[in-house]
Amino acid sequence: MNLLSIQGVSRTFTSHKGTQTQALLPVDFEVRENDFVTILGPSGCGKSTMLRIVAGLDFPTTGQVLLDGQAIDGPGADRGMVFQSYTLFPWLTVAQNIRFGLREKGVPEAVQKERSDYFIAKVGLRGFENHFPKQLSGGMQQRTAIARALANDPRILLMDEPFGALDNQTRVVMQELLLGIWEAERKTVMFVTHDIDEAIFMANRVAVFSARPGRIKADIAVNLPHPRHYTVKTSPEFMELKARLTEEIRAEALAAAAH
Ligand SMILES: Nc1ncnc2c1ncn2[C@@H]1O[C@H](COP(=O)(O)OP(=O)(O)OP(=O)(O)O)[C@@H](O)[C@H]1O
Ligand SMILES: [Mg+2]
């Protein structure tokens, strides 16, 4: 069975003046267990809207989303979210942020510590357990957010341009970090990005959205072997995928600009 099933999901926003914006055309999309799906598409095509619907933070105008066969009707601990903007609680330390969801669930203190220590080590934040978010760099804040999402052991990780605000070097390091975690844990991931290299490097599937109103116009398999090292980015297979995706995205960006 598919882990996540997006069935005929569309979304039309209506302003208080009655103006309608169709953000998504009906989308059908299946995510299998252990998939790392990246979603590419021009600005404003409905990528965040779709992810927010999967997260249960917004609701579709038509259609439904099933997770493990159950219809999603709101946010839940089975979905871990990481957004572009830093969403840590500023009054909690790194360790407290990571343990927050576990505490809410009433997980015993010893297990909370064990899980937060494990993921703090995974994201390379040992020694920063007692720092507050404002004492961390942007990359470290996003690593904390990823550790927090993973510590809750969600069925799926939903990431909306989580590295979008980072400088290029940090971004590349974060891609390798997340890919390494995925290679070890095989957590199912849906990851929205504008960056074609990023989309190919981490994914086993890239879904390309059309210009608004969004629909999925291509679903492309990435069969590069694992473990992947950054040098894969100069391989002929990578370059070929990149050329193809660049064309797909360019056509949609032009269509979006012509609206
Ligand atoms: N709450 C809202 N109310 C009204 N319109 C909205 C709302 N959220 C999104 N939209 C509209 O829906 C469309 C899709 O927006 P969305 O944020 O999903 O795009 P996106 O693909 O994530 O873009 P970007 O790549 O720039 O982040 C846009 O036209 C946007 O203006
Ligand atoms: Mg967005």
Automatic annotation (TrEMBL):
PANTHER family recorded: ALIPHATIC SULFONATES IMPORT ATP-BINDING PROTEIN SSUB (PTHR42788:SF13), TAURINE IMPORT ATP-BINDING PROTEIN-RELATED (PTHR42788)
The protein, known as: ABC transporter ATP-binding protein
GO molecular-function terms, A-Z: ATP binding
SUPFAM superfamilies for the chain: P-loop containing nucleoside triphosphate hydrolases (SSF52540)
Family affiliation: Belongs to the ABC transporter superfamily.
ABC transporter domain location: 4-236
Listed Pfam families: ABC_tran (PF00005)
Key words of the record: ATP-binding, Cell membrane, Membrane, Nucleotide-binding, Transport
Keyword Transport tagged: yes
CDD domains according to UniProt: ABC_NrtD_SsuB_transporters
Annotated organism of origin: Comamonas terrae
Gene3D superfamilies: P-loop containing nucleotide triphosphate hydrolases
SMART domains, sorted: AAA
